[in-house]
Specification:
The chain is of the alpha+beta class. A four-stranded antiparallel β-sheet has the order 1-2-3-4, covered by helices on one side.
């Protein structure tokens, strides 16, 4: 996709009145999906998560923080969920602290999940 095509697509997705939300976004459905994610992470790690949602003036819907003592590496995991589709960023310890999962893995701060129940979610 060319840069012009990408920009055109991004403009199509924006709501002209609420730039931080995609056009035709169902906020109730987004909230339910976020709640399901929090519950699945809590069940998968066997620990309560901190979460915040509906981040104001941001394309990020919310964040889920899995405590360090619930992870194999002893590092907190933060999942940042986008308002634009079912997109999420998984971060080791602190969003923006690593250039990517390869760097976090090399430092021993992140190990990818191996359970097939995590794939596609």
């Amino acid at each position: 996709m060319s840069e012009m095509e990408l920009l055109a697509l991004l403009r199509e997705l924006d709501d002209p009145e609420r730039l931080e939300w995609p056009l035709h976004c169902d906020r109730a459905a987004a909230g339910l999906a976020f709640g399901r994610l929090v519950r699945r992470l809590e069940m998968g790690f066997g620990a309560l998560c901190e979460s915040e949602r509906d981040t104001q003036d941001s394309s990020e819907y919310g964040r889920v923080r899995e405590p360090a003592d619930a992870t194999i590496c002893g590092t907190r995991i933060v999942v940042c969920v986008s308002k634009f589709g079912s997109l999420a960023e998984v971060c080791a310890d602190n969003p923006g602290a690593f250039l990517g999962t390869d760097e976090a893995r090399e430092e021993g701060r992140w190990t990818p999940p191996t359970s097939p129940s995590w794939s596609g979610h």
